[in-house]
């Protein structure tokens, strides 16, 4: 069954049944202010930091679901009946209550109809202002006059999210609520030892506030909940001022509606002083035109970011994801990394080094300048020895505060992602100047970006084990595998091979011949080690444990084959041969399912301390034989590089969220964004159930796999390559793309119905002899025709 549908024209996902299996959320905001909101109006907001700047409160993993959030209640003064515009928290019977939620790009709209009253609540965050706007419309669709009280409610978090959840003996005695009577604005402040101590406010911008509460316990009342607040039953708020306790922002506004009449209200929740910023914003947004103007800026913001790439393929779901939702998710992960969702409570905010290095791949075509700034931030978190801080906080680093990791917390892969990220930026933009920029290391000294890259390669070269493979150190990409104390990682070694190849190509292009020769020798030695020590007959082993035992081998006592060491054998470029094909055939044979490829097989059943935390999960969950969506994207790339378009597309569709809309009761998570993992085939009950949506590297790699390897449009230092690998049944496809400021209309025709192979390329009416189109050949606007064939 499904719970909603895609509205492609409006770029919305429309939820028609609010009883979704899990909370289906949206992210609103662009930079400093972020709001996460579910289809039932629950969720939280934060300013700059989800850990130290949490504005509103949310109860994670709670019963009932979706509490609390930002709620607007309507109370009929004649009947005393009340409801919320969003179905929850009041939860009227759905046979009498029409409820629709529209998640759009940068906004969410709730629409309802109950007892002949039509209402809507639109919530969005302006592009350049630290506040959220609640736009309410109420229409009387009956034949009689109606009088209403409109109540609003949201619960403040006490800024520090971890203290707010754990240290009640302290945190519950810190808030200082107030009320600006002259301007009718609730004032919220608290004093903590955070890097900054923001204040917040709440108000109605265009109507008189009749009553208010700032103390949650007074507004809700003892033994009540958000579904039946005492103030609403009472008919007015109590005027409470919380000095200590649980702060909230609750207001009452009264309206009268004649038959057919519609009323419009605007509520503001923002960062700032009620007597300064609150007063200024209230004045600005008292005008309906100002609110509409701000909303149009949000729409233009997203239009600008998504119009850099648009495709028209023979699969509507692929189009839907690539043109709208996949790109939207890529920007969300770029903005917020992995710290703020309904799954991550915000306790480790900041940037994960490997996460953020990968996240840029999905947005570099759209926001190259922001990507450049992010790269410099990442390079500042690299240490002079070459490795990187696994996790860092740009807010504190900008104040010169570095949390340098101890040696035992060095990861074998973090720093190597720079060799993927920096070349990707240069290929997209042609901006080689970044290589000469001097960037300081996190510990001491500074170097050019080019030398930062070399130092990353040197660190890995100097940290190899007895088989010549990279030491796993604290962990490689799979943090739950124990490769400490001399354990070696096949996958990190494959990533290193890819990193060396990327650097060699870059050095060769800019004429650094000495470096080319040096690192080719490194690469040859790495290839020899991979050949000699990782091939297991049908697939590549995952690595070696500290004891010397093979991990992911026919010889292993439990799990015998791992996904990443097969896909990266090909993706790295090390094994574009029969061994690579055999390894990928083993993926098909042992790991592939209708929902994607499991991470390893068979699942671990017994805990093995030497193998690590992967063995602590039940079969089919997380790292233990789940379908890790991030890892599945590399399978697509590997098959495309091998020219097997049917397999590449089959794997792409197997875990595509839009492909799960009709089985949402099984999939459970949002069908418009990728999840971290899907429960694997060896789980006894929940095969096909998705978990941990939104903030996952799956987003950027799914976009990269589909656009650069299936559709085959890949930036190059000298221009752009067009090398599709598609299902042979396709007649072709079209792509509109902005590349280095120039418009490309790419028309691919497949008359011979092949999966791979370019026979002819025509640019602006002139045939060229290569599928690498030099930037020198590009005009401001270009029509590129590509004929596939053998």
UniProtKB/TrEMBL annotation:
InterPro entries: 6-hairpin_glycosidase_sf, 6hp_glycosidase-like_sf, Gal_mutarotase_sf_dom, GH65_N, GH94_catalytic, GH94_Enzymes, GH94N_ChBP, Glyco_hydrolase_94_b-supersand. GO terms for biological process: carbohydrate metabolic process. Residues 11-280 form the Glycosyl hydrolase 94 supersandwich domain. Transmembrane segments: none annotated. One of its GO terms (molecular function) is glycosyltransferase activity. Residues 301-712 form the Glycosyl hydrolase 94 catalytic domain. Pfam families: GH94_b-supersand, Glyco_hydro_94. The keyword rRNA-binding does not apply. Keywords: Glycosyltransferase, Transferase. Gene3D superfamilies: 1.50.10.10, Glycoside hydrolase, family 65, N-terminal domain (2.70.98.40), Maltose phosphorylase, domain 3 (2.60.420.10), mpn423 like domain (1.20.890.20). This is Glycosyltransferase 36.
